[in-house]
């Protein structure tokens, strides 16, 4: 078996390139238009990693604390397929969940083998560059369409051919904001801090102008979680101050008659309608659900959606999927699937928190702090959106994998410490 010290210079270069490939995967994730490119590139990267591991006689399996809940969750999804109301459709959807597991384990493997090479900025640089390009592009489109601070009808989103993708942008910002804050904390020169601070400000503007209440709630959760991690006794004070500020803001909006445009209740009513259908499905199929995948739910309730549009003509958008990851899992795989999914998220949070408390250097603590805030905000956002898919899932699992390898692999502990920009 070859060790890193016995690798040839050419092999060392290849492993370094594979490590930087993870960064390119992250960079591609800042455009929903490039998701399939991101997908193909990652699995090409993973294929190369597996090939060189086998060539060097190394195991491709990476043991993690998440193996039991993650593999159990995947196993339950597969087990529920024969009981689906449309097994063929569920069988088409299931590989998406398996692909997410491959992203997690593949990233762990790549970091394990390549972290000793290169300069270790494989993830932070792409986050900074990708966030700047994505958020500047989205805000430019927002202003070009006549967006302003008062009118909720024009919202910031990622520009696409069929309109702006507001949900995608708000979820992306919610996940990236904590990592930008972590990058700011790891920077020691004013130029680096200026770069991270400027992109952080762009992210805040995108978050606000998305007018996404679910994303705002997730950001509030991140603030409270961050304060709790830094100084537990300040949480209550911050919460009280925040409540007063929100009350004053609400009063100002009502007084100025702006609340009807900024806080449109029709979207809430639309969610309640689809949640009623989803809850009925969970009650009727509590053990294995109606079948994994939102497409199963959409096909099952096509006639119900038509009736809702007729009965509630004033609601501008009748939703056709649960718009809650937790409810979507319960509908598709039953209550056991929901328990396994929540166990997985909880296990990740507890593991990262334990690593954060034990971290010995500042850079690693900053990185784990950012991942913890990402987990907290993203978990809350999933209450109101099924955002655990596409490029968001790739970013999620790459960040989770990197935090795990930083805290458990002695060879990867320098992965972050060398990422300091400045």
What does this protein structure show overall?
- The protein has 422 residues and is mainly alpha-helical.
- The chain is built from 17 helices and two strands.
- The protein is globular, with a radius of gyration of 22 Å.
- The chain has two domains: 380 residues, no CATH class; 31 residues, no CATH class.
- Strands 1-2 form a two-stranded antiparallel ribbon.
- The two termini are 37 Å apart.
- The C terminus is likely disordered.
- The longest helix has 34 residues.
In short:
The protein has about 425 residues and is mainly alpha-helical. It has two domains: about 5-230 and about 265-415, no CATH class; about 235-265, no CATH class.
How are the SSEs placed, and which strands pair?
Layout lengths: L8 H20 L6 H21 L11 H14 L6 H28 L9 H21 L13 E3 L2 E3 H20 L4 H20 L3 H18 L3 H22 L3 H4 L3 H19 L9 H7 L1 H10 L13 H34 L3 H20 L8 H19 L5 H4 L5
Antiparallel strand pairs: 1-2
Helix pairs in contact: 1-2, 1-4, 1-5, 1-16, 2-4, 3-4, 3-14, 4-16, 5-6, 5-7, 6-7, 6-8, 6-15, 8-9, 8-15, 11-14, 14-15, 14-16, 15-16
Distance between the termini: 37 Å
SSE topology string = HHHHHEEHHHHHHHHHHHH
How many structural domains? 2
- Tally of helical runs: 17
Oligomer: single chain
Q: Which regions have little confidence, pLDDT < 50, spanning 5+ residues? A: 410-422
Largest beta sheet, briefly? 2 strands, antiparallel
Structural class of the helix and strand makeup?
Answer: mainly alpha
Strand content: under 5%
Shape: globular
- Based on CA atoms alone, the radius of gyration comes out at 22 Å
Helical residue percent band: over 70%
Strand order of the largest sheet: 1-2
Number of beta strands:
2
């Amino acid at each position: 078996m070859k060790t890193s010290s016995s690798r040839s210079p050419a092999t060392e270069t290849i492993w370094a390139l594979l490590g930087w490939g993870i960064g390119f995967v992250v960079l591609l994730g800042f455009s929903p238009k490039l998701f399939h490119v991101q997908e193909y590139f990652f699995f090409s990267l993973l294929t190369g990693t597996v090939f060189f591991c086998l060539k060097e006689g190394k195991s491709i399996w990476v043991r993690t604390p998440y193996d039991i809940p993650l593999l159990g969750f995947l196993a339950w999804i597969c087990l529920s397929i024969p009981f689906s109301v449309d097994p063929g459709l569920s069988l088409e959807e299931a590989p998406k969940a398996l692909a997410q597991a491959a992203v997690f384990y593949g990233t762990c493997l790549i970091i394990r083998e390549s972290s000793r090479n290169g300069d270790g900025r494989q993830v932070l640089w792409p986050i900074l560059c990708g966030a700047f390009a994505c958020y500047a592009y989205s805000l430019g489109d927002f202003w070009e369409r006549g967006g302003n601070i008062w009118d909720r009808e024009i919202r910031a989103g990622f520009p696409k051919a069929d309109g702006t993708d507001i949900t995608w942008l708000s979820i992306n910002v919610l996940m990236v904001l904590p990592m930008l804050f972590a990058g700011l904390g790891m920077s020691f020169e004013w130029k680096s801090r200026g770069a991270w601070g400027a992109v952080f400000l762009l992210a805040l503007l995108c978050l606000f102008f998305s007018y996404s209440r679910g994303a705002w709630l997730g950001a509030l959760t991140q603030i409270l979680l961050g304060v709790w991690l830094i100084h537990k006794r300040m949480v209550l004070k911050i919460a009280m101050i925040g409540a007063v500020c929100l009350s004053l803001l609400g009063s100002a909006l009502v007084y100025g008659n702006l609340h009807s445009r900024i806080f449109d209740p029709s979207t809430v009513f639309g969610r309640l309608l689809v949640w009623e259908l989803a809850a009925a499905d969970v009650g009727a199929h509590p053990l294995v659900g109606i079948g994994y995948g939102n497409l199963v739910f959409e096909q099952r309730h096509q006639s119900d959606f038509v009736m809702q549009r007729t009965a509630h003509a004033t609601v501008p958008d009748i939703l056709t999927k649960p718009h809650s990851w937790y409810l979507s899992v319960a509908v598709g795989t039953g209550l056991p699937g929901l328990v396994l999914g929540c166990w997985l998220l909880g296990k990740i949070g507890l593991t990262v928190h334990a690593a954060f408390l034990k971290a010995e250097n500042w850079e690693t603590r900053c990185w784990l702090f950012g991942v913890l805030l990402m987990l907290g905000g993203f978990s809350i956002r999933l209450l109101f959106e099924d955002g655990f898919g596409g490029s968001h899932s790739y970013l999620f699992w790459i960040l989770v994998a990197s935090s795990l390898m930083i805290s458990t692999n002695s060879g990867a502990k320098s992965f972050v410490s060398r990422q300091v920009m400045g």
